[in-house]
Design goal:
There is one protein chain. By secondary structure, the protein is an alpha+beta fold. Helices cover about 25% and strands about 30% of the residues. A hairpin with a 4-residue loop joins strand 23 and strand 24. The two termini are about 40 Å apart. About 40% of the residues are buried. Bound molecules: adenosine-5'-triphosphate (ATP). Adenosine-5'-triphosphate binds next to strand 7 and helix 2.
């Protein structure tokens, strides 16, 4: 097409209720595509676009620009793919939002609580996108919903290996997603719930309790309800974890994306007053390889330390003496029941704090900084169920001098001395 402002672009005319899907090639950090709404109205995953503003999307982005009324969009740069689709489940998603909004209105009238919604389904069905859409629509009509992120592999809120909750006060930014200020974050320690399912369920209950307390004190939060994003593990203990989540959060609605068996199982196993709804996935959701997921995780940790796009953070690197901190791993390796000390169960071992002796193998591990210090036995017991105040990465270990070097978002000293080790490692290539 004719270069207007010097840059070549491609123009797309979208009819009503269609979407333009495009992807930016991953791998090359300099790759980017700019998108501009020229006429009409459109939205990206529930957030409205401003006309004549250029939005920039970096490598690996997979975007859908949807229009209810029809619009024209320009793409600048070379997207890996770009096509218009008429076949989208957006109308069904909007109807879902309308039904949830009805429940909020009723809650307001009857002085009750708003809908608690759990979004479930296998990997790559667009769970996170549906959560983002429903949250943005809710906040656009003046609600204050809470986002609960239980996907420990691909967290939209904090670094991988955590579960968290976030109060949503404005729609997601088109380029950057939700503004993550003051989230409540708990340490899980690995990227799949299966490594310690007891801990995973325990943390789900912790979040549910804090959310319920907040609802008691804050009417808007109570009416707004919550949208819970879950992991794509829907069999065995993964399925049990979903049932546990539904019960501990007392969810009213379960949205099952593209999985009929899971839908039938949940209908069978959840109480009859829980509305279980089967929704199709969008054809636009792109399958992501293991490698791609690993890269996204790495990127999330890099963002935590170095910032994102316009906002640069400057992390600190300093030495920490082994004697100044206490490092724990949550959960002892499982041993046969017959070998457990008298009166102890497997549950106890999975939630146990196991001291870690610092050694060279600590290098590159991500450590959570617990918000409580292990002053006495009672404090130690509460560590597992307490939120964290941040993360550091071990970059070097010197066993001779008993010192380790860490990468930290804040200058020395560490705010607390109790550190929890993750299975997750981060190599700082910057
Ligand atoms: P996970 O397996 O991590 O739980 P998920 O089910 O939550 O994945 P999403 O993260 O919502 O899936 O979506 C996967 C990718 O597909 C994301 O990069 C998202 O931006 C993209 N995507 C979602 N919907 C569309 C669409 N309609 N058109 C184009 N891309 C889309």
């Amino acid at each position: 097409d004719a270069p207007a402002s010097g840059k070549p672009f491609t123009r797309f005319d979208l009819e009503k209720e269609t979407e333009l899907r495009f992807e930016v090639e991953a791998g090359d950090a300099s790759e980017q595509v700019e998108m501009e709404l020229v006429t009409g109205m459109a939205e990206v995953f529930g957030s409205e676009l401003n006309r004549n503003k250029k939005y920039t999307f970096g490598p690996g982005s997979k975007i859908a620009v949807f229009t209810w009324q029809g619009c024209t969009v320009n793409l600048y740069g070379k997207p890996e793919v770009a096509y218009v689709s008429k076949d989208t489940p957006m109308l069904l998603y909007l109807n879902t939002h309308a039904a949830l909004e009805q429940m909020r209105k009723q809650a307001e009238r009857d002085n009750e609580r708003g809908p608690r919604v759990m979004v479930v389904g296998p990997t790559d069905v667009g769970k996170s996108t549906v959560c983002r859409l429903l949250l943005s629509y809710a906040v656009r009509v003046g609600r204050r919903p809470t986002f609960v992120e239980l996907d420990v592999g691909q967290s939209g809120v904090s670094v991988p290996g955590t579960v968290s909750a976030l109060c949503i006060e404005r729609p997601a930014d088109v380029e950057e997603g939700f503004s993550v200020q003051a989230p409540l974050v708990y340490h899980f320690g690995s990227t799949t719930p299966g490594t310690n399912i007891k801990l995973y369920n325990k943390l789900t209950s912790c979040l549910a309790e804090v959310f319920s307390q907040r609802c008691e004190m804050n009417r808007k939060a109570s009416v707004g309800g919550c949208i819970i994003n879950t992991c794509g593990w829907v069999k065995g203990s993964g399925y049990q974890a979903l049932v546990h989540c539904a019960s501990t959060f007392q969810v009213d609605v379960v949205l099952v994306l593209d999985h009929e068996r899971l839908y039938n199982e949940l209908k069978r196993d959840l109480p009859h007053f829980v509305r279980v709804v089967l929704l199709p996935k969008s054809g636009g959701v792109v399958e992501r390889s293991k490698e791609c997921r690993r890269e996204t995780r790495d990127e999330k940790i890099r963002e935590y330390f170095y910032g994102f796009r316009g906002i640069s953070f400057f992390p600190f690197s300093y030495e920490v003496r082994f004697s100044d901190v206490r490092i724990y791993k949550i959960g002892a390796p499982s041993i046969p029941d017959s070998c457990l000390p008298l009166g102890m169960s497997q549950d106890d071992t999975q939630l146990k704090l196991v001291p870690v002796t610092p050694g060279r193998d600590l290098t590159y591990h991500v450590l959570s900084v617990s918000s409580v210090d292990d002053g006495d036995e009672d404090a130690r017991k509460s560590i597992v169920e307490s939120p964290v105040c941040g993360f550091i990465v071990v970059t070097q270990v010197d066993t001779q001098t008993q010192v380790m070097k860490v990468l930290s978002p804040a200058p020395r000293p560490l705010p607390r001395h109790t550190l929890l080790i993750m299975d997750i490692r981060f190599m700082d290539m910057k």
